[in-house]
Amino acid sequence: MSTSSSRRVSAPLPALRPISRGIRQWRAPLGLAMLAGLCLSMPAFADDAAADTAAASAAALKAPRQLEEVEVKANATGSAILQAPTQADLAITQPQSIIGLDWISNHVSPTADYATIAAIAPGVTNVSPAGPGLGESKQMTLRGFNDNQYNVTYDGIPFGDTNDFSHHTSSYFPAKMLGQVLIDRGPGSASTIGQATFGGTVALSSKDPTDTFSFIPTQSFGSYSTSLTHLEVNSGKLDDLGGGKFIASAQYMDTDTAKTNGDMSRKTGYIKYVQPIGESTEISFLSNYNYIRFNNPNLSSLTLQQIDQLGRNFGLNEDRASVNCACYNYQTKQTDLEYLGVRSALSENWSLDNKVYTYAYDNTSHESPYVGTKASPTNMGGYVKINNYRAWGDTLQVVYADDHGQFRTGGWYEYTNNSRSSVAIDYGRDGAIDVKPGASTFGTFNSKGVYSGPYKYTMKDQLHTGQLYAEYQWYAADGLSITPGVKYFNVTRDIQAPINQTTKTPLYYSQNWDKTLGYLTANYLLREDWSIYGTVAQGFLTPNLNQFYVPDPTANNTSPTQTMNYQFGTVYKTDRFNADADVYFINYKNYQFSTTVPGTTEAVYYLARGAYIKGIEGQATYYVGGGASVFANGSLQDAYFKGSNLDMPNVPERTAAIGVLYEQGGFFASLYDKYSGSQKAYNSSFNPDVASSVTSTIGTSGYWQAAMSLGYGQNLTGSVIKSYKIRLQVDNLFDAHNLVINSVSGNVGSYYVLPGRSWFASVSLAL
């Protein structure tokens, strides 16, 4: 008996089978041809029956997985494929790590966000100063690329902030509402969509409804007075609705977090409904809503002096005379994401997949408090920042497939409307706008058009994005697929700012960029269990809106940042052992950076020549037997600027993970350790092209963080309760105390402080 599995196979729609059959027919003779012709050291299959067995084995590894959680699954057999925390697919054309429901539901904290889950993968690092999933992730990097330099998608839909495409990890999709996290390390193929097909993609997948009815309440509690209640219901197939089914979840979490006075509460709701139409079409509807309120420390990172004075876990206090009072530093956020999807087999060869979607982010933040307002030198003032946007979009893919290959074409369009403002208020006057009594609440402009008044900025911006692509996966020979592709993208930014951020002058401006990108990938199946692959691909990053916050954006060089990626790797998969490894080289062009004007706080944006990034990555799991597996993964990377040979800042130079898993007789357990390498930061005024511009360098050493999970689940018969599961998760098992460099001001470093040991216990029932 084993617990919670994501490896259940979902049968394709009946009318879609001819398409997949062509692929399987191409795959069937691969083991024979490649073993006989290229792998002479291995025995060839002797007859057609053996070939059919090999083809079935390869197909099983490639079968689509239904992302549904089973609290306790009976009669499971041990396997490296089933137990691997991270693994790749045999058919990939760029490095990837698939993190399935087994790992998410049994081996990470129940409070986790996607960044916490992804951190087990090679090349990924994450800092969670408030505790696992208990606050915004800091410095989630992928191959050293920062959060706004790679895509995050949900069921194939890219989402993120409109200004710089960063993400708020605690504001979307908690762990219990995710079915899979897939890390693609590279720009992908022509069909990969998003604003940042640059450093890679973190692809989140929703849970699927199950075929049978279930009601699963879960209660978790643990460190920092954390309480999490989760309710999940699966309708099972509804015969009266032609086999339609849904999954619905509701979650409430309340926690003090690892930071003093860092209280946070979150409410989340989720529903996904799947409706078959005839034998060839499936319609799906999904909605996810999240509301979060949290106290946001004025000091997100601390200097060594502040750590000595205030303590390692300092966040906020309760002193109303202090700028660090929780009463002046808090935020509320509402997010939602909805889509209506259609997947249909149009004929024996043609199929279509389309999603119409919308998502929104609404943030009200009380921040940057100060002493002394226009009404009184002793009153406490602060700023209320509003940031809200809604995106509307559509993703479309049309596929023609036959025994010779697959032609894929489609596109992505998204329109986002964003309103931003920040205004000073006087808490001594019940939050009234901070102006002298009787004065205008808006403020004035001088003869040079520079604003003076309570607003830091007020603006609206729109982002129009369109991408069209075409690619052909050609089955060039037995076992060999070659996929050339081309993508055209067009991006337009519009900004209407009566008071522009930083400049305090009006700005009404629009700019457009377009570019055509090329891709070439290949995969060669040497045997039914071993493949090699290669990629040559271009990536890009849509220009940051922050570059408009300058006196003359027309003079600002805002060319899209680009990468040229070269990657080669291999994947080996059997029930006993699976492993993959890759090497890569990235030519990073047009490095965007900002520097602070000496004597001011004004930032100016430039483009440096760029950087070179190269490295090696690998991951492996070996099934020892008796329900136990061992796993390891790691990466080495070298990232340095072309013009100065300086190491890129905030880029860990290596990662590693090692662990053991056990799953048998209802018991499951894991013990693992993750290493994040050393990194450095420079003074804020440095120029990546000029080594002498660095006047201060501060680094932090690498660190290990261990975690442990223990649990037991059992199926019951003749009872209202069908099964139960209990689980204990311990993070930072050995209570390591680490600092991670964030930034340098002058010659003083500011650090993220990692929390100490934490524990979380859970019990769930299936009714």
Explain what the structure shows.
The chain is mainly β and 767 residues long. It has 7 helices and 38 strands. It has one domain: Maltoporin, Chain A. It has a 22-stranded antiparallel barrel. A 5-stranded mixed beta sheet has the order 3-8-9-6-7. The model is unreliable at 1-64 (pLDDT under 50).
Lay out the secondary structure:
Blueprint: E1 2-3, H1 17-27, H2 30-37, H3 48-62, E2 72-73, H4 80-83, E3 96-99, H5 101-106, H6 114-118, E4 124-127, E5 138-142, E6 151-154, E7 157-158, E8 178-184, E9 201-206, E10 214-222, E11 226-234, E12 245-255, E13 264-277, E14 281-295, H7 304-310, E15 330-345, E16 350-371, E17 380-402, E18 405-426, E19 432-433, E20 444-445, E21 451-452, E22 455-477, E23 480-499, E24 507-527, E25 530-541, E26 561-573, E27 577-596, E28 603-625, E29 628-641, E30 654-664, E31 667-676, E32 679-682, E33 697-700, E34 703-715, E35 723-731, E36 739-745, E37 748-753, E38 758-766
Parallel strand pairs: 6-9
Antiparallel strand pairs: 1-2, 3-8, 4-5, 6-7, 8-9, 10-11, 10-38, 11-12, 12-13, 13-14, 14-15, 15-16, 16-17, 17-18, 18-19, 18-22, 20-21, 22-23, 23-24, 24-25, 25-26, 26-27, 27-28, 28-29, 29-30, 30-31, 31-34, 32-33, 34-35, 35-38, 36-37
